Amino acid sequence: RRKTIMAKLGITKNASLRISHEVKNHPNLVDNKWLKGDKVFEIKDPSQRLITMIGAGFFNEPRYYDNSDSSEFTLSDQANEIISTAMAVAVSPNPRDLWVISRWAREELHIRTTPNVLVAIGCYVNETKQWARQYVPKIARRADEPIQILSAYLALFGKPLPNSLKRSLSDAMANFSEWQILRHASQEGHPNLKDLLSMIDRKKDWPISKELYEYIFNGVILDPEKTPVAAARRALATKGKEFDSEAKNLILKGSIPWEVVVSQFGSTKEVWEFMVKNNLLGYMALLRNLRNLEKMDIDAEARSIVRNKLISGAKESKQLPFRFVAARNNVSENWTASAIDLALEETLENVDELPGKTAVFVDVSGSMSAAISQRSSMSCIDVASALGAIIAKKSGAENVGLFPFAKTFKKLQFSSADSTMNIIGRIMNANVGHATYAHLPMQYITDKKEKYDRIILLSDMQCYSESNFYGLSASSALGEALKLYQHKVNPKVFFHSIDLHGYGNSKVDTKDKRVHLLGGWSENVFNLIRTFEGIEEGISVPTIEELRKRY
Predict the structure, then answer these.
(1) Quick one: which H or E segment has residue 454?
(2) Which helix (H) or strand (E) holds 402?
């Protein structure tokens, strides 16, 4: 059973022992001595370090230069560093930062697992327990997330459960509807929904009603009017494979999830058209099932509904930009491809306008080709290209220098007529080799005296050089190239370093007040840039100070 708990997060029993040891000893930051690259500038503030790491990868996924065992139940270097850094934040002079960063990552970066692991830590460490009930209901935004938080806690710390965890998870569960809770009621393994409800604080009709509790634990419908979703599910289960009007009415009455419908009635044209026309597919489900809709050759009405939903719902969809790239790679028909392209354009509305001129350095090197997940064919190059194209398109060709780089670099030319998806393709097809010489585009804009107000680096931060270029030290070429640009071209340039793989280090001097360190795969990371530059007040604002104000 314990192995099953830890398997949900990819954590071994040894990880639990390690975490307990680190909490007792108030850990310092992990020293990444094995990493590829130039001189590494240590990010001493654990809150700032966590910000650069938390959104730049799925939890417990291996990275290109990790040393961890790749077996199924091993705590990866990436996961270990996130947990260790979170512990450091929890026992720092600013322990509430752990909750602030967790909520920011969940609400603005749209990631789930990592914030839930941080919640488990926050409920364990004495210095952070006091804020659990304030933050947990705001971080656990889906009904399966309290289960994941419980999984993380049991895997890392075991029993007994502290009151901070039991009460805050009860608060979170009280926010969910019957449909939201039953959506995840059939989750296999342990802990599951029954385990959660057995372990957290409960009283009469709280956090769920007596009727819903009876259905979950005993399968009994006490009052169909009080549990309409459960009643509809029970009735639908007796229908077998017959997809008639009665089955359709029950599906609508119970808002039955699309996976259940397809499993029971089959992946047919009639089933998919019914679900599309009755709005039974959420945005992510729609995006991921476009290939199925193509294969079923759905009718013109259903196609129109799909297109309109993809485009009109994109801005509020909270999809990471690379999800649109993944969907585009999976479709083959014009009606789906064009809808995805237009949907991606709509997401630009989420990005703040950046005044002045911007240079964007996009890392397309060999290390960036690593898959973002063991279950995905998408790579960090896809992530970087999508983000680079978004900021380039948003700011406009006349205001942006776009530089994909690896062993060499190119300055890409594009126009306002180019779509974001078109720019993404051109970045990915730049053909600039496999090394990671980030200093080369910096030297180019220095030699050409191209004056930019800001430089944005999108990279896994494994930048290096193998020989001297223009008299720069091979051990710290990017940092020295930035200093040279500041000296020769623009002493007031801002440098925004966006870590896309969570190694948690910097390639430029972190003591420079015009250097801004971030991490993440969402277009929302760009919205902290304007705040940092202090456009309104004329002063730069450290990232964590801004997040404290928001959350």
Answers:
(1) strand 454-459
(2) strand 400-405
